[in-house]
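>> Question from a student workshop board

For tomorrow's exercise we were told to take the sequence and the ligand below, predict the bound structure, and bring the output to class. My setup keeps failing. Could a helper post the expected result so I can at least see what it should look like? The ligand is adenosine-5'-diphosphate.
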Amino acid sequence: MTLKILAVVSEIYPLVKTGGLADVAGALPGALVPEDVAVTTLVPGYPAVLAALKKPQVVHTFAGLFGHDARLLKANVSGLDLLVLDAPHLFNRPGNPYVDADGKDWIDNPLRFAALSRVAAEIGQGLVPALTPDVIHAHDWQTGLTAAYLRYSGRPAVPTVMTVHNMAFQGQYGRDLLPALGLPARAYAIDGVEYYGTIGFLKAGLQLSDRITTVSPTYATEIRTAEGGMGLDGLLRSRGNAVSGILNGIDTGVWNPATDARIAAPFELSRLAGRAANKKALQQRLGLDVDPNALIFGVVSRLSWQKGLDLLLERLPALLAAGGQLALLGSGEMSLANGFAGATTLHKGRVGMVNGYDEGLAHLIQAGSDVILVPSRFEPCGLTQLCALRYGALPLVARVGGLADTVIDANEVALAAGVGTGVQFSPVSGDALEAAIWRTADLWRDRPTWKKLQKNAMKTDVSWTRPAAAYARLYRELVAGRAG
Ligand code: ADP
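>> Workshop helper replied:
Here is what the output should look like for this input. Compare the format with yours to find the bug.
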């Protein structure tokens, strides 16, 4: 029997993306088709989403949803079955879905995402009979209240899965919002939405969903510790076996070096020569010296404390002394952007940077770099190291979260066994990063070994096939659990 899933999420590739969450939301539905799982995804009607809809069907109208009327639209875009919450008073704001032009969180974010969650819950309870799902799958804090609306409605509810993509974003708001959110007073309790004297959106989802997943097995362990749990570790420990880790994949159609129209020349395992043209194109694009023997370290990242790029800035002299070049694409914190911009002037031809968000350049960096650096302090899964494996750029990563799970460190034992795919370092410190950079440069000098590692990397299965099967099993277990 085809299982019907309602996914609910605040961003989805290719329509609106600020990070890996959108990639997952965009790729998982297609990967679940062979598992006989049909996903419909509920997303906010941001301008970019509404503009992409061709002949949407109005499946419901709301007379007053958090203040004004709204509509629920159904459409298929880029192969994705979507339900779009067209609520202009909440979502008709261009640009980043969460912040205004000054980078400040929209003041009504709790209401915006509560509305999304409430509609998800109502669909779960039969609002649009033809679309009533077997399971609701909510992603991140923005949709955490879905399980709360289901729980406190007093009506029968479908089972729910909550996936955490990043514990650092929790959605915490004042308790005085409770009536505006349409939740009853009894919801404000330790086993409800209450979180250290506030309302916790993620907390509510973790407390009230039937199952919790996060995006790698190691992160599933880390979030049950005080450091990784960021306030929610006790709750997660108390949920016992309801918590599990399912590794992300990447869309191997979008990220395919053999057919990628965004790169300078196609290549694949059997014809790696094409990589050289990408390296040259990348060096030219970022103003780096054109030198096939330079070891290019690439970075595609949000510029934030999480990503550990301050450590990279600090250890840039070592990277350059090791014969490296840096090709960085990033957006985020001004101090980091300024730091790297300064380095491009100081080390002309050796450090190149684009400050901004650029899908095309992200692909070229993967195709043209020799190494992709991900020195994150914590990393739930990480996608850029998966792209790197597929594009034959060796990932140099901190041994945390999903980075630990997806890269095989090319240490002596792994080299002897012929199984390495990259370089890992631990702890996440400047010294360890620097040592890893030197180790990588040593590997680079030994080209036969490097080629072997590159081949191992490119043979790694980074697709959604295995993760999709794991999600399908989880959904079916939940449905069977309810039926039994
Ligand atoms: P996070 O979701 O924490 O930002 P992930 O590694 O899980 O990190 O996902 C990041 C995604 O966003 C990847 O697909 C990556 O290629 C993309 N990305 C990050 N920064 C940029 C940027 N400046 N320009 C283009 N793509 C970017």
